[in-house]
Every structure is written in C-alpha cells, then in structure tokens.
Amino acid sequence: MIRSSSSKVKEMISLEVENKLEKLQTEIAEIDILRAGKRRIENNEKSAGYLKRTAESRNIKRNITKIIHPETGLECLDIKAKLDAASNFYSTLYSAEPIDHQDLESMLNTINKQVSPKDAKHIISSISFDDILDGSRRTPHKSSPGMDELPYEILNLIIGYPSCKSLVLEIYNDAISKALFPKSWQQTCLVLLPKTGALTNLSN
Fold it and tell me: In which domain of life is the source organism classified (predicted)?
C-alpha cells in the first residue's frame, strides 16, 4: 500500500516537472522567435536549431566584416579603416548641394511665423488612447528592431494590452505636458539595411 502511494506521488511529481519543462521550452522558443524576427513560425516550427540558424543569419546581415573604401578601392578590415571608409562615403553622400536662395525665401514667406491659439491648444492637448493605438497600427509591418531589439509588431501588442493602457497614456501625456521623456526616446540607433548587392559596397 505504501509502495503504491509512493509510486503515485512520484508519477504526480514527474508529470508536474514535465509540464513545467514543456512550459519553459515553449517560453524559450517564443523568445527565440522574437530574436529571429519571425512574425509567425510556419508549420509550427519550434526547433531550437532552426531558430538559432535564423538568428545567426540575421546577425550576419547586420554585421559587415569588410568594406571597400569608396575612394581608394582597398579592403577595410579593422574598425578604424571601416570608420574612415564610412565617413568618406557618407560625407560625400550628405554634402550640401547649392540651392536657389530666392526660391527658399519665397517658400518660407508662405509659412506662418507663429501658431494660432486654436492650433496651440490642440498641439498641447492630451493624447487619447485611441490616438496612440491608431499611430501604432500605422507603423511599418517590417522593420529593424531598435536598441531594445523589439520590432514594431511586438510594440503594438504591448501598447494594445489592457494592463498597459494607463502606463502608456501616462508616458505619452507626460511627454507633452511635463516634457518628461523616457531614456529610450532620447537614444538613436542607425541600422543599415543591406540590399541585394555585395555588403562590402557601402552604396548597398
């Protein structure tokens, strides 16, 4: 009788452990899915190897091992040489072009020099939750994650979650009325999106 009872207890404990392991495995897979940048996993694929390969493939596309210097045509392998090549390329790309100052003045003269009281009141009015949801829905469906490594799809889910409503409203309205901005809003992250050409060419 004691052995039978002991056996049942072991079975119950074993079942509980298996359930917890299954739950943990699912959570790990879901985290890996986010890291891999997948909106959905086709054919219910949750293989750790598949997800790891996808994440590594994405990471390779984000990292450039060498760059061809746009001026010298030489390969740049170390950080200093890469920075010099990038600086040369983007300095040329974003160099100021001559403009017609008369046309510029003409355009500026059509812009009101001050905001009307009605517009000013509208600008500083509180943001509604519906406005925030509408804005989040209009974000790109495909995008590179920011510094938190979360794509817009995940951000939309967080914003739309009922438990987050009051916090979301507080953050956005504090930014308008109190000029209080989250630290993450004051950071920038430049992500270069590779095209079909060679990654060594900065124009790609």
Answer: Eukaryota
Distance (Å, whole) CA 54 – CA 150:
16
Measured CA distances, 173 to 159, 176, 178 (Å): 14, 5, 8
How far is residue 33's CA from residue 157's CA, in Å, rounded to a whole number? 15
- What the block records as the tokens of 109 is 């003269």
Position 37, amino acid = G
Residues listed for the chain: 204
| Two structure tokens written together for 79 | 């950080």
CA distances in angstroms from 128 to 161, 163, 164, listed in the order given: 15, 16, 14
Between the alpha carbon of residue 179 and those of residues 39, 85, 107, 133, the distances in Å are 34, 39, 31, 21
Which runs of E-coded beta strand occur in the chain?
67-68, 75-76
Q: How confident is the model at residue 39 (pLDDT cuts 50, 70, 90)?
A: very low
Supply the mean pLDDT for the chain.
79
Q: Please give the single-letter amino acid code of residue 121.
A: K
Give the 3-state secondary structure of residue 150. Answer: coil
